[in-house]
Amino acid sequence: MVIGLESCGNLTGVDTFFKAKSVAIYGASPSPNSVGQAIIQNFIKPMYEGKVYAVNPRYSSVLGIPCYPTLQDIPGPVEMVVVAVPARITPRVFEDIAAKGVGAAIVVSGGFSETGTRGTELEDEIVAIARKNGIRIIGPNCVGVIDTHSHVDTFFLPEYRCGRPKSSNVANISLVSQSGAFAAAIADWAAEMGLGISKIVSLGSKCDVDDDDLLCYLGEDSTTQVICYYTEGYDENKGRTFFDTAKRITQEKPVIVVKSGRGARAKEASMSHTGSLAGSDNVAAAAYHQAGIIRPDNFEQMFDMAKALAMQPPAKGDRVLMVTNGGGLGVMTTDAIEAMGLSQPPVSPELRERFEQRLPPYCGINNPVDVVGDAGSDRYDVVFEEAIASDEYDIFVVGMLLQTPSLGMEITNRIAYHASQSGKPFIVISMGGGFTTKAGEIMELMGIPTYATGEKGALAAKALAQYGEIKYGKEFKKTVNSGKP
Amino acid sequence: MVIGLESCGNLTGVDTFFKAKSVAIYGASPSPNSVGQAIIQNFIKPMYEGKVYAVNPRYSSVLGIPCYPTLQDIPGPVEMVVVAVPARITPRVFEDIAAKGVGAAIVVSGGFSETGTRGTELEDEIVAIARKNGIRIIGPNCVGVIDTHSHVDTFFLPEYRCGRPKSSNVANISLVSQSGAFAAAIADWAAEMGLGISKIVSLGSKCDVDDDDLLCYLGEDSTTQVICYYTEGYDENKGRTFFDTAKRITQEKPVIVVKSGRGARAKEASMSHTGSLAGSDNVAAAAYHQAGIIRPDNFEQMFDMAKALAMQPPAKGDRVLMVTNGGGLGVMTTDAIEAMGLSQPPVSPELRERFEQRLPPYCGINNPVDVVGDAGSDRYDVVFEEAIASDEYDIFVVGMLLQTPSLGMEITNRIAYHASQSGKPFIVISMGGGFTTKAGEIMELMGIPTYATGEKGALAAKALAQYGEIKYGKEFKKTVNSGKP
User: Which of B185, B177, B118 is nearest to B157 (CA)?
Assistant: First the structure.
């Protein structure tokens, strides 16, 4: 265990939300397109190996699962309850949860503090019952949890509309989102992209389990390599704790936060959406920086960065070598690398001489090294071997244009080999259509993050340098004095 | 005809590069993976309806096509020659071209001015012969031309590696690229994305046909709705002409230029790659602005913008209404819209009243209008009808999260209907996986540009406003004093 429990948020019972071996769906229903049906459908899939119970006084069975009037009627232990009933009856449901001795409840229902005074009263009531009886709550007003290992899945969205991500053997990302719609859209998108995901949590109104609790939990979770957040703001008291926790966690694994509500108009929209005050963005920016949190502008950047950080080691310095078989891609990427505040130093005279001895005379020996359009993987090999041996560079950015048939698929193995042998981070940029996309998927199965544009590749390189600086502190070799991505 | 010939670059013969009804491949070859084989393979496909001849003294036929020792042996007219022979014999080839009376030559071979003194001499020789005999040249050192209507295709890259784009019935983009590798990668990528393309031209060393000539030509080309360029710099004398021409063309259709070499390091890389001096980026930026050219930072932005400009009318003002079924998406997009310098004004009291009469009370009536997660297309209909009638907005940005099954596919028809009826530009943002991607493809077949993130959607809206301002000048209703995207 990396981080002492005492220094963290409240971890009690949090594990149950991801590993519950028996789950009751309160408000289970056979009605097509109902929330109560959608959730029970997730749990009766064979991948979920725990026990499932339906709770609803109106039915004796739902989709073939025995259905009970109350939790207390269930003949056996229940570790987690998913609450999908109207807000007004949730206090009664929580009395039942307490009586059954269940420790974890995901409340997907809306109609609580986000709707006004009466809703806030109901929320206060269930929180009071939960506190008194040691029940942890995720929600209300959320879509809950997806765990790709245990197959706990409370997302009440049909799989044909909202694909479910899988875990990867290489590296996995976990995401905590204030917005349920974003949690769902990202789950769907990650499924389509084949991005390795461990957990997705939609926190909703955060009446109990909050960002800080999950940061502690995911910080210790061995199946999570990178922790990602989407937030629109923090509770006044809790924000501080979150940043204190982050300061420790970010020494162990990268934490990336997308915080919306930068502009004045968005702040208004956020207030009306979640009721939470977005707060001053400058204050937040300083806090993120101090805590070692990486803060991209948007989701696309978040996942471009997370993919690199999950698959590759952090960089030990900011010196980038680029090699490419397309000169234009070299120019565009060099622009982007410079804009990111990374260093792309020229090759030394010694290294140049070694390149010149082994590369055709029409190759461009600069940085980028242009092995030109008729290159096979052998020229890349030369560049990797000599540049790694020279120790002049900390990050390798590889332009791999596959439109030209002279570059055979063995290039993928060569890149993966040099990356693993050197221990230095490698990023691949491969721009194109069907063949290129498939080759990129192959690269990523080998653990090399691959991007469709020079700008994305440069951003990924920046993330590896940025996290290297966070992790290694003064040992990080910084040659450029510069800023944020 | 929109633009008088006299005010433009040299259009003589340019049409032939795209519409040649008879083509000779000089250097045609049966050798697998040779350039001479790859090119002839393109022209013997049934889609190309013109005549094809092979020229190579070593063969009497190539891939079943009759092969002649010289052009003059060909029994019939030849409108265009593709030159794929070593640079040193190109002067002889050009004498043959002149003797045959051919007016257009695409020189794909390298080994000219990009390689040094001897190459420059060879380039000067063929240019001299061409000038004297009225031959237009594209190249040398390029991949030439793809025309999706005539199926002229000189890209010597096999289709399994480099997909070929198609024209669309909705709207088409043409691209002129200094870099052949980028031209190929973009062709491949556009094919995969299903983006409508009319023409892709790789200009190479621009010994004759240049950016300006093609700007004039594409400006008058009825199958091109948006003109895109990738350039690393302009010839000292020609840059001026290009901007003069652009000033006129941009009144008729959008021109978008990605110019690399912003930073100092990239400029060095560019110099070594193309031999052209990238020049001062500030001077270029001012020239682009004055000429009404839109200048994104990179290709991704270029095509996100081009798609919107090709499919939708330019905006007549900068006031954006956003409607969404996901609050978080509303917040993120609002941030991006504000950062783009667009206006997102609150709904007027009158419009609010009309919304309140027709929408459920738990919808968020602000801007963004949040029709919330259980919305069907009827709520979107209300927002469109009332907001269009109010005339308070110039651009509609529609958040369409399809993870929730309550939003049926009829939403696509409703959006397309309101867009076409209102005459105002519509942009859709739909984030997710497989189902979402297919729905986005359907939207685009109906002419509504669809984006995977709020930031891309905001950029597209900005492009429509930016071009509206270029096109309508003082008639454009500007409510925000702001900046570039």
Answer: B185
Q: Which of residues 247-266 of B touch A (CB under 8 A)?
A: 260-266
**What letter would DSSP give residue B89?**
G
Domain ranges within chain A, ordered by starting residue: 5-308, 313-475
Please report residues of A whose CB lies closer than 8 A to that of B454.
298
Q: How far is B272 from A327, CA to CA, in rounded Å?
A: 9
Q: Which of residues 380-439 of B touch A (CB under 8 A)?
A: 401-406, 431-437
**Minimal CA–CA distance to B177: which of B124, B230, B139?**
B230
Report the C-alpha gap between A447 and A444 in whole angstroms: 5
Contact map slice: A 454-473 vs B, CB within 8 A = 454-455
Write out residues in chain A with pLDDT < 50, as ranges.
1-6, 277, 482-485
Q: Distance (Å, rounded) from C-alpha B42 to C-alpha B338?
A: 47
DSSP assignment letter at A73:
G
Chain A / chain B CB contacts < 8 angstroms: 263
Instruction: Quote the pLDDT of residue A116.
Output: 87
Q: How does pLDDT run across A187-197, given as a tens digit for each residue?
A: 999 999 999 99
- pLDDT of B480 reads 83
DSSP at A348: P
Under 8 Å between Cβ of A161 and A189: no
- The reply to whether A5-308 and A313-475 are identical in fold is yes
Amino acid A386: pLDDT: 98
Pairwise CA distance, residues A177 & A237, whole Å:
19
pTM of the model: 0.92
Beta carbons within 10 angstroms of residue B63's beta carbon? 16
Radius of gyration of the CA atoms of chain A, in A:
25
Show which of residues 211-230 on chain A sit within 8 Å of chain B, judged by CB atoms: 230
pLDDT category at B270 given cuts 50, 70, 90 is low
User: Which residues, in sequence order, are CB contacts of A234 under 8 Å at separation 6+?
Assistant: A211, A242, A276, A279
CA atoms within 13 A on the CB side of B183: 28
**What is the distance between the alpha carbons of residues A171 and A256, in angstroms, rounded to a whole number?**
16
* Chain A residues near residue B190 by CB distance under 8 angstroms: 433
* Rounded (5°) CA angle B483-B294-B317: 60
Distance CA A379, CA A372 (A): 9
Amino acid at residue number B428: V
Task: Kindly determine whether residue A370 and residue B273, on different chains, have CB atoms separated by under 8 Å.
Answer: yes
Flag whether residue B355 sits within 8 Å of chain A, measured between CB atoms.
no
Confidence at residue A235, expressed as pLDDT on a 0 to 100 scale: 72
Res. B177: pLDDT tops 70: yes
* Topology of the domain covering A5-308: Rossmann fold (3.40.50)
Contact partners, residue B201, CB within 8 Å, separation at least 6: B17, B138, B144, B145, B174, B175, B176, B177, B183, B214
| Closest CA of chain B from A193, distance in Å | 8
Contact between chains at B338 and A263 (C-beta distance less than 8 A): yes
pLDDT of residue A201: 98
Residue A162 contacts B, CB cutoff 8 Å: yes
Which of A 292-321 lie inside 8 A of B, CB atoms?
Answer: 297-300
Buried b (16+ CB within 10 A) or exposed e, A443-458: bbebbbbbbbbbbbbb
Looking at residue A260, what is its pLDDT?
84
pLDDT band at residue B1 under the 50/70/90 scheme: very low
DSSP helix/strand/coil, A4: coil
Which ipTM was obtained for this model? 0.90
- Which CATH architecture describes the domain B313-475? 3-Layer(aba) Sandwich (3.40)
- Mutate which of A273, A299, A325, A347 to disrupt the B interface (most B C-beta within 10 Å)? A273
Q: How far is A185 from chain B (nearest CA, A)?
A: 5
